[in-house]
Amino acid sequence: MAIPLVVGFDGSEASLEAVDWAAEEAVRHDVPLHLVHAAAPDHDTAGRIAAAMDRARKNAPPVRLSSEVLHEDPASALLGKGRNAFALVLGSRGLGELDGLLLGSVGLAVAARADCPVVVVRGAAEHRDGRFGTVVVGVEDGDGSGTALQFALREAHVRRGRLVAVHAWSVPFGVLSEPPPPSGYATEAHCRPPAQVLDDALRGRAERYPDVPVSRQTVEGPARQALLAAAADADLLVVGAGRRRGHLGLQLGLVNHAVLHHAPCPIAVVPQR
């Protein structure tokens, strides 16, 4: 039996938009969709569950649906389900979140600790509805982007779209023999040519999806700006996250925090394997 795509919902409009997106995603990948609602034991949840199920069926009639109510805090409920999930999907802000918050506390906690890819559904309708035919992925120097690249290529494949691989770099200030610490997707130009970073990362992976056109972008400047600019015409932005040494959870870093809060389209955080 295929592992499900899990979507968390609380009845907010943002969570229902996440249900819409997740239902279409489940159909693309031919996996079941499991709706999870975390609520206190004394809350009447039947109406919210029925509304979310109806919405999923309306937007993606072929989807295989199930639902569950868990009596625990939302982040813990989703993290538990994420141990055996194709991916976790949630809205950018839930009920009770302040309007000024760019990303809800549940979304940030889940993105930082989940064992599976986490998709935060953001952006206007044209970004959520797959109108651009483009998936963008951030590529950093080294081996940290491999799982994210595989995820992004598969997404571009099932969407019959193209992949844009973005690598940002910067020339360090001061003495070249004493470069500053690495900063996620931005790497020093004197270490490896930026074009080589992308070529090496894509080699052996892009060939598995010969139907996916791949564009390469090397950008001198902050990685967060490069990724946000590329995502302006994208259906999905994909970033990787490494494991934190000696700690539970992922190393999201400043770049991933920035795009989680400001991306103009849905964003997937993919744990490094």
Number of helices: 9
* Rg of Cα set: 19 Å
User: How much helix, percentage-wise, in residues?
Assistant: 25-40%
Structural class: alpha/beta
The biggest sheet, with number of strands, parallel, antiparallel or mixed sense and barrel status, is: 12 strands, mixed
**Overall pLDDT confidence:** 85
How far apart lie the N and C ends?
23 Å
Provide the β-strand percentage band. 15-25%
Give the helices and strands as they follow along the chain.
EHEHEHEHEHEHEEHEHEEHE
SS elements, strand count:
12
Low-confidence stretches: 96-102, 175-183
In one word, what is the shape? globular
Describe the structure.
With 273 residues, the chain is of the alpha/beta class. Helix content is 34%, strand content 23%. The protein has nine helices and twelve strands. It has helices at 13-29, 46-59, 74-81, 105-113, 125-128, 146-158, 194-202, 223-231, 253-262; strands at residues 5-8, 33-38, 65-70, 87-91, 118-121, 134-138, 162-170, 186-188, 214-220, 236-243, 250-251, 267-271. Strands 1, 2, 3, 4, 5, 6, 7, 8, 9, 10, 11 and 12 form a twelve-stranded mixed β-sheet that branches. Strand 4 (87-91), helix 4 and strand 5 (118-121) form a beta-alpha-beta unit. Helix 1 (13-29) crosses helix 2 and helix 8 packs parallel to helix 9. Mean pLDDT is 85; it is low at 96-102 and 175-183.
